Each structure stands twice: as C-alpha cells, then as structure tokens.
Amino acid sequence: MTNGQTGRRRVVDHIVDRLAAHGVRHIFGVDGANIEDLYDAAHFRADLTAVLAKHEFSAATMADGYRRSGAPLGVVAATSGGGSLNLVAALGESLTSRVPVLALVGQPPTAMDGRGSFQDTSGLGGSLDAEALFSAVSVYCRRVVDPARIETALSEALAASRRGPAVLLLPKDVQQSIFEGAAGAGLPFAVPIGDPDPIAEQLRRACGPVTIIAGEQVARDDARDELERLRAILRARVATVPDAKDVSGAPGPGSSSALGVTGVMGHPGVAEALTASGVCLLVGTRLPATARAGLDAALAALPVLSLGSEPPYLSSLHVHTDDLRRSLTMLNAVLSGSGRVGSGPQSLRSCPPDGVTVPDRITHTELTPPVHEGNGIRYRAAMAALDAALPDGTDIVVDAGNTGASAIHYLPVRRGGRFVVALGMGGMGYSFGAGIGMCFARGHRTVIIAGDGSFFMHGMELHTAIQYRLPVTVVLFNNNAHAMCVTREQLFYRDLYSYNRFTPSKLGAGLAAMFPGLPAVDVAEIGALPHALQTALDEEGPSVVSIECSADEIPPFAPFLETKEAHVHV
Ligand SMILES: Cc1ncc(C[n+]2csc(CCOP(=O)(O)OP(=O)(O)O)c2C)c(N)n1
Ligand SMILES: [Mg+2]
Predict the structure, then answer these.
(1) What's the CATH number of domain 379-569, 3.30.1330.10, 3.90.220.20, 3.30.300.350, 3.40.50.970?
(2) Are strands 74-78 and 101-107 parallel, antiparallel or unpaired?
(3) What average pLDDT does the segment 401-414 reach?
(4) Residue ranges in 252-394 assigned as alpha helix (H)
(5) Where does the signal sequence lie (predicted)?
(6) What single DSSP character describes residue 149?
(7) pLDDT at residue 252 above 70?
(8) How much distance in Å is there from the Cα of 293 to the middle of ligand 2?
(9) CB burial class (10 A; 0-12, 13-18, 19+) of residue 135?
(10) Residue 514 pLDDT exceeds 60
(11) Cα Rg of the chain, angstroms
C-alpha cells in the first residue's frame, strides 16, 4: 500500500501493511499531530479500521481486551506528550498479565530533540526519557530514529509481543520517511514449545485424583479444547484462577468437573478438592497471591506440576512452553496412548496413567457474606438476574471493587462466551475500554460490569460504543461509593469515619440525558431488574442499566469474611 495522496510508500504505510498481514483488523487510539500519519495510512487500507477512543488509557485497554478475547494482537496508537503518558497504566496491566499488545507512540520530529520542542520525550536536554519510561511497562521498547531500522524494530516488537506489550517510539519525521525496504510481511518467528515428558512421567506416578488449575495462558494460546481433552483423559477436576474464568467449563449443569475459581474471590470447594487430590497440575498460571489465597497448605502437601511460559510462585516441577496448545496436544497424545514419551531408545511407550483415580463428587460451594439488612439490590440477587438474562455466547468483562468480586464469584461464564477481568494491576476503569475492544474483536453482545467509582474514572468511553453503535450493555452497580474501601474502613479501621462515600448520583438518568437515544435506566428494586436487563440486551446498539445497591453490603471476598462462617454447600 502507498499513501493515497502522494503514491509514495512511507514508514507508516509499511507499518499498517505489516499489522494487516499479522491479522490485525482494528487499531485503537487517540489522534494528535504526532500520530496522524498512522491514522492516514490506516485510512487507505480497507481491511484495517483505526478506532478513535476518548482516552489513551481506554484505547490501550481496548487493545488489551481485543487480544484477550482472541484477536492475534492488540494495537494501540497514541500521540506524543500527555497522550503517550496516558498509556502507562494500561500497559502496566497488559505487562503484568502478559497480554500481547503493540503500542505505537508518536514523538516530535528528531531535529528538535533536546532543544525545547513541544512534548519532547527524547530524554535529551533534560527532557522526559520515554524510552526509559516505556521500557518499564513493556517487554520490548525501541525508539526508532533511523527509518532504515523500522523493519527490524517492527519484527522484533511483533516477536516480543507474544510475551506482553511492546512499544515503538516513532518520531514524526521517521513516520513520514519513505520506506526503502521490500514490502514483505517479515519472517515468521520461532516460539519455544516445551516438551511435556517430565509431566507425563510424574502423572504416571501419581496416586489419586488430579486437580488442574488453569490460568490465563490457556486463553492467550487458544488452548481451551486441548485443556478439555486433558481433563477428560485424566478425569480431572478443573479450577481456574480468577482472571481466567472462561478457560474451562463453568460450574453448573453439563460441567460437573468445574470447581470454580481459586483465591480471594474463589470457591471453597477448590481447597477441598486439592486436599483430596494426588497431584495438582498448573496449566498456564504462575498462581500469584490473589489466585493462591487459601490454598497454600493444600498445595504444600501435594506434588505440584506446571506447564507454562513462566515458573509458578510456589515450588513445582515446571516445564516451560510459549505455546500451550502445542504442548498440551503433545501431552494428550502421550497420555492417551497415541504418542510416545521421548524419542530415544529408552523412551517410554505412551499409556494412560494407572494411579490416577476419579475424584469423589465435590459439590459446588460459595462464600456466604453476612446478610445485609439495609436498602439496595443485593449483589447475589443482581448476578442471579444477570445469569438468567444473558444468553450463551455473551462476552463479559468485569471491573474492580466489591462489584468485581461479586461478579467473579457469583456470575457463571456463558457457554462459548468470554469472561475477562484485569487482576494484574486491578486498575479501576479497565472494563470500559476492554469491553469495547472485545466487542470489536468478536462482533457480538458484550456486557461490561462496573461500579460507580470505576465509571467515574473511565465510563465516558461509553461515547465510543455509541459512536460505533456497538452491541455493548453496561451494567453499573451504583452504591454511591468506592465501596470496597468503605468495607475496609468498616472492618479494619473500626468504622469511625468514611472517606469513600460519594454524593449520590443517578447514572442511568444522567446518561440518558447526556446521550439522547441511549437506552439508560436506573433500577432500585430487584423485581424490576429482569425486565430492565432484557430490554437493554434486546437493543441493537449500546445500553445502560444502573443498579442501585449498598456500600454497606459485604461482598464475597475471602479477606473480608471469617473463614469459619464463610462457606456453605449449595
Ligand atoms: C485505578 C485504581 N485506583 C484505586 C484502586 C483501589 N480501589 C480498589 S476497589 C476501589 C473502589 C471501587 O469502587 P467501585 O468501582 O464503585 O466499586 P465498588 O467497590 O463500589 O463496588 C478502589 C478505590 C484501584 N483498584 N484502581
Ligand atoms: Mg461503588
């Protein structure tokens, strides 16, 4: 492709060609003088849409949500100065959760580097050093000052982005330079694929049931089917970490093997299952503290095996792989008798593990927070109404706070749907951009679940969903507070004061007035919720339901609950 006006092929034209060849169909960003050439280049490619967001944080979470929901790569574009700085929080989220994202960041022309140019971030002459800053929130960061280096930098960035965000800093003159190289699609890059022999061997020695804990790498490497096959071969129970709820069957009918979620917002049955297991197999998770809480004792008493791109935070027999789909396929072949373990003369014949047994039936369990007596729709009742209303295939993205914990704990994943939550940094306001990005990637109804505090941070990104007429339903839980912080004040600071309650607002009415034509309502009674949800979900475009709830209700969050009274079999 070439510039539609001049017919000459610029660096930006080459970049968009490479992205399109990589399977990217949308890039997300906010325009500005030092990124407008990239928007110009994208305009001349029919297969690439440059989406205009309202804030760079949300543009970057759009890229993150786009990739997490299955697209090959999330791409965000931002201009220099303040625009670029707005990316940092979102890239930090993508880095911690290892989400493949490429950030293309404009900079002022190089001729003025270090000489007081507007928004200088060259690091020269006392200016902010963007390369140092973005290196800290990415797995790869290069400032491209020579147009001849773009091809190498782009190839390296695309290869590195498999492990997390990559950043290219692109001064305006470099973007506008004529691209001299060939218009190729770059070389394919090799990915380390772990051979799971040692895990197969240990599984053969295992005695008792197997519990699998699956993590976000299963989603990243699109290995859900392979995980399900492994589960069937091992007749294992599967739990997921909280930010990978959608990688294994949801608890409930048709999925008796699913134990639910691990960790702070998790289900007590996971610890019970581990205690009764002969071995635990971690698939694609490092099991960070939020995912491990309450499980340390049970895990310490078991052999722990791990397959994934990074070793877990607890001691285990770990096999490294950057492609879980391929490694799980190998493991399944070996365990099911259709492959061989190893390749030498000493290699074991493949066979199913004998000592592995089918676990006793374990009932699904829930945390039970103290009953809340005051006003407001209860989180559990609201999640039950959502569970009844959301059809199969609906994608769900969840934000932070008491609202987020309740959704993770109570709301099952839809069959065939995605369930995304950002627990890497747990940054409020993630869900708005991420939900919009998911909707662009998957093209069907996405439900964003967020608290009023998260809404006040980044909820205005709703405007982008309206602009692009996306089938996005925003379900707000309005407790007129940063309620998770209210709960902490009550439980840990003797309830003597509150910084965290807000002046009340009516978000549904407010949004309906602000965006004429947007269906947006406030719901204060549980009886009215099913109809309000159904109406919102039946819309073709965006819609909003704001649920009035209470900052005094304690959510299903283990650190807030007394373990003794905390759970009951349901
Ligand atoms: C960007 C950011 N700032 C601060 C926090 C700390 N924090 C965690 S939950 C929370 C309150 C969330 O309020 P809201 O979205 O209304 O949800 P609620 O807890 O009220 O259900 C805060 C301030 C955070 N997670 N992210
Ligand atoms: Mg709130």
Answers:
(1) 3.40.50.970
(2) parallel
(3) 96
(4) 269-275, 289-292, 296-300, 324-336, 379-389
(5) none
(6) G
(7) no
(8) 24
(9) middle
(10) yes
(11) 25
Distance of CA 555 from the midpoint of ligand 1 (Å): 13
- For residues 60 and 79, what is the distance between their CA atoms, to the nearest angstrom? 13
428 lines ligand 1 (CB under 6 A): yes
Fold entry, domain 11-176: Rossmann fold (3.40.50)
Any idea what DSSP says for residue 44? T
pLDDT at 357 over 60: yes
Report which protein residue has its CA nearest ligand 1's atom 20: 483
Q: Average of pLDDT values for 130-147?
A: 98
Ligand 1 site, residue 106, Cβ cutoff 6 A: no
pLDDT one-digit tens code per residue, 430-474: 999 999 999 999 999 999 999 999 999 999 999 999 999 999 999
Q: Is 406's C-beta closer than 6 angstroms to any atom of ligand 1? A: no
Within this chain, domains 11-176 and 197-355 share the same CATH topology: yes
Q: What are phi and psi of 358, to 5 degrees?
A: -80, 130
* HSE value, Cβ hemisphere, 13 Å, CA-based, for 346: 1
Amino acid at 428: M
550 in Cβ contact with 403 (< 8 Å): no
Q: Which residue has its alpha carbon closest to ligand 1 atom 8?
A: 401
Name the residue with tokens 């001299």.
180
Q: Which ligand is nearest to the CA of 425?
A: 1
Task: Kindly state the tokens that stand for 23.
Answer: 């399977």
